[in-house]
Design brief:
Blueprint: H1 2-17, H2 25-40, H3 45-73, H4 75-89, H5 92-107, H6 111-118, H7 131-178, H8 190-214, H9 217-227, H10 236-247, E1 250-252, E2 255-257, E3 260-262, E4 266-268, H11 275-307
Antiparallel strand pairs: 1-4, 2-3
Length: 309
């Protein structure tokens, strides 16, 4: 039951406080990762494996040791730390803080402002996007980051506690930094990309299932089943296909990166997205979070009742 309660409190803290403005631990971790990369980068997979282990494993081990020690010596202190750790690794409010300015700018007809705002969410060339493609980029980011920034961390926290949440968030951060198929990271970032794929396999499919249950279920299920495997990422495909189907919008398609328009599969069905689609995507993620918390509390109560029967 304490795990479910910690999840509820962490989500409430995120809604109330948002991300810390200064000295966010993930910012400090990013600096550590850049330091490790600058002193150990090599065009070999083994170098990336060692760098990943050096960046992630000591911090996960420290969290695990604190759990072993404090759970016995000071359980309430450990519970409070668990809540804070989970709060720091989820980013539900951050999704809204980034996506809503895009929706507002589009609603007001400010395409330049919308391009600037969506540029904080995606890596594509936003100056080349029209209003429909800006809305699509923001909607895609909300749906995908619902898994990456929220549900993945909740899943691993529910499974392994604070050490699991820390492991997931640090691995996800390194994938965002190193997991690219570029000349510099093709080999060095291989481990970061593959480990993130493994850690996201189950959370992504549970996220996709949540989108199915809370949106247009027949369409979302059909899009997931038919379209997901067309996407390069084995985890983003189910999440984005089911999310697009749940919303009844069409995502994917060609997008510009570094001055080149790259072909991408179409995802979803229905109209092209607009500002309202961005807001609806946020609402879908929020409803899914509520569903996850209800399930967690229900299972926690059932376990508590069984242990006290």
């Amino acid at each position: 039951m304490s795990t479910a309660l910690a999840m509820v409190l962490a989500v409430m803290m995120d809604a109330w406080l948002g991300e810390p403005r200064r000295w966010h631990p993930l910012v400090l971790f990013g600096r550590l990762a850049r330091f490790i990369e600058s002193h150990g980068h090599a065009d070999r997979r083994v170098a990336g494996v060692l760098a990943w282990g050096l960046a992630v494993l000591p911090l996960v081990a420290v969290t695990g040791l604190l759990e072993v020690w404090w759970r016995r010596a000071a359980p309430w202190l450990w519970f409070a730390l668990e809540v804070v750790v989970l709060y720091l690794v989820i980013g539900l409010r951050s999704l809204a803080d980034h996506a809503l300015p895009v929706a507002r700018a589009l609603t007001e007809g400010d395409l330049a402002g919308a391009r600037t705002a969506v540029g904080r969410m995606v890596s594509r060339d936003t100056f080349a996007l029209d209003d429909t493609r800006v809305a699509a980029a923001a909607t895609e980011s909300v749906l995908e980051n619902g898994n990456d920034a929220v549900f993945g961390a909740l899943f691993w926290f529910a499974l392994l506690g604070a050490p699991g949440a820390v492991l997931y968030r640090l691995a996800n951060t390194l994938d965002a930094m190193w997991g690219y198929r570029t000349e510099r990271y093709e080999c060095y970032g291989w481990a970061a990309a593959r480990i993130d794929d493994v850690l996201n396999f189950l959370p992504a499919r549970l996220t996709a299932l949540s989108y199915v249950l809370l949106g247009d279920a027949p369409r979302a299920w059909r899009c997931w089943r038919v379209q997901a495997t067309r996407w390069d990422s084995p985890n983003a495909g189910p999440v984005m296909a089911s999310g697009a189907g749940a919303l009844g919008v069409q995502l994917g398609g060609a997008a510009p990166y570094d001055g080149v328009w790259e072909s991408r599969p179409e995802l979803g069905e229905g109209a092209r997205p607009d500002a309202h689609a961005i807001v609806r995507a946020l609402q879908l993620v929020r409803r899914s979070v509520v569903l996850w918390l209800v399930v967690a509390v229900t299972l926690g109560l059932a376990q508590w009742s069984a242990s006290h029967a």
